[in-house]
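pinging the channel bc i need a second pair of eyes. not urgent but kinda urgent?? the chain im working w is below, pasted from the shared doc
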Amino acid sequence: MITAKPVESNWAELREAQLLATKALPRVGLAVITDVGEKDDIHPTRKAPVGARLAVAARGIAYGERIEYSGPVYKSMKVKGDKAILMFDHTDGGLEARGGDLTGFAICGPDKKFVWAKARLDGNKVVVNSAEVLQPVAVRFGWADFPVVNLWNKTGLPATPFRTDDFPMITGAKK
């Protein structure tokens, strides 16, 4: 469900913690399931896509098969003028927007107030901007309890939600 303005999300923070675990622990994978989730339940009722993605991750990580086992994972950001340019790992075969224009991107300037953004593919990069943000500082993708997102790699795996910022939460919690 798309809100009028981007909001903070406990579910997004949980997804972020899971992603961070894959980077900190050896031989750990992740199945992104934002496309099969439920609006009011973090656990999807459709289990087959979850199992299939976990099996692909196991083949690539545990069994060492030379296959793409992950969807796109945020790697870095460069700012050029009023645009944020995002680079990703796991772009085997390229990136694609499934079902139309890219969705689920938000951007902020120095005021740290996120607004929904336009995003477009540029090869294996994503260019993000908004008329409301002249000096981009951070980008978020899929940062919601039930994100509406459509960035995939061409091997058929969805991108991991992420944020480029590490701002303290609106509630005042410190990171």
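so The radius of gyration is 16 Å. and Residues 170-175 have pLDDT under 50 and may be disordered. — does that match what u expected or am i reading it wrong
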